[in-house]
Amino acid sequence: MASIYKRGRDKGKRHAVWYFSYNDHEGKQRTKKGYTDKGLTEQLAAKVEQEVMLRRRGLIDPEDERRLKVKASSIEQHLQDFEESLGSNSGKHVKLTMSRVRRITETAGVTNLGSLRVDSVATALRVIKRTDKFGNRTYNHYVQAIDGFCNWLVAMGRVDRNPVKSLERLNTQVDVRHKRRALTADEFAKLLKAARESEKSVQTYPGPLRAQVYLLSYLTGLRRKELASLTPRSFELNSDPPLLRVEAACSKHRREDILPLHPELVELLTVWLDGVGDDVPLFPNLDLKETWLMVKTDLETAGIAYETDDGIADFHAAGRHTHITELLRNGATLAEARELARHTDVRQTMKYTHIGLHDQAKALSGLPIPSVPEVATKGDWQRIGSGTGVSSGQSMSSSVGEEDGEDEESQLKNPCNCRGCVTKCQPESPSGTEFDEWRRRESNPSCDQTQILCRSSPTIDRTCQKCHCHQGFRVQLFSLRHVHRCQSMTPDDR
Length: 494
Known about the structure:
494 residues, mainly alpha, DNA polymerase, domain 1, hpI Integrase, Chain A, 4 domains, three-stranded antiparallel beta sheet, 41% helix, 9% strand, elongated
């Protein structure tokens, strides 16, 4: 029985709160705060004791109670814990992910885990998309952020299932907002020349330094942040083959990348790295620069449009997209391009590949043509659809003059003067008797009239009882039983 009492310092006070103590289902003594009214506190104590009794008997699962308590807790605490779990990722990724998750929960009116439902989240996503007017790709990033948060809740045991698992991604192909294009070899050469000869600094980068960034991006396929992390220690020019190492902290997939170097790039790096400290960045603060502005300025100087119908040629397109596209244009296999691009899925590599009609025509022109016989060059090709109907291995039918000269032996080999029999030609049984009509119906119950005919026999024009067609029909004999076939006669047969 729970004991109800007031604390010593509250005795004699009229509106002091009552407390009660009880033993839980594990036998531990607990104390709980009641009300200022003693009767209400007694009712609360009785309710708690009833719950303890049900737990002891196994009628209430403590784990279910814990989950219900977690669902009723504030969403903010779970968001803070989720942000702590993302600590191994880059600061930009953590900031972007949490901003998207918080915006969804605030727009959907989510205050606790119990109010996190798929319908409210879907409505919030539509409202955000309509307000910001972003594309399908950004919409999918929002879905990915909230889906990652809910998967983390499941992994931590805070919810039983992902409440937003049924959210569908949108098709990004029908709504491309930032379409990129790769540069051709001539366009990239003009870009390098314009930057090398430029006397104007863009984003505090002089022209020759911009040319070095462009060339290194093109020959390695590195991203902007990866280029910004390069120091002389990143290169192993004396190894076989010469290598480039990208630290895991700077790589997009958080793993150390090892790439081979172009032979001509090795010679250039020998000059570029001369006198540079081992830990000095080659391109300081490049990840904080507006590199698209650099490329746009140099493209305009070279007389090349920054944006065309095929897309824009920003820094990522001029470097990484052009790198992967030129690999395939110059004979690299798709598997080799995927490894050099450091993609886990070849479908991602295909998104960086810009193969146009000119590339397709060039590939098609390399298709070998089989040798053509001499007679074919004289116009003796048979026109498509003008065949005589004779398959390979069969001889053409003889002319009329030759048929007249056939000997008697040939006539004996084909007594009915036809091109072949469906079955062995047999004389028709005498008809007219009751027994004969019964025998015919039993041998072929689908048709009331049967007859064994060769192809040269005249067509019997009757209605078929099996398929109800009104045309000639024949009967073939297979395995000592009649099989009915309806077919129309060809003009030669008739």
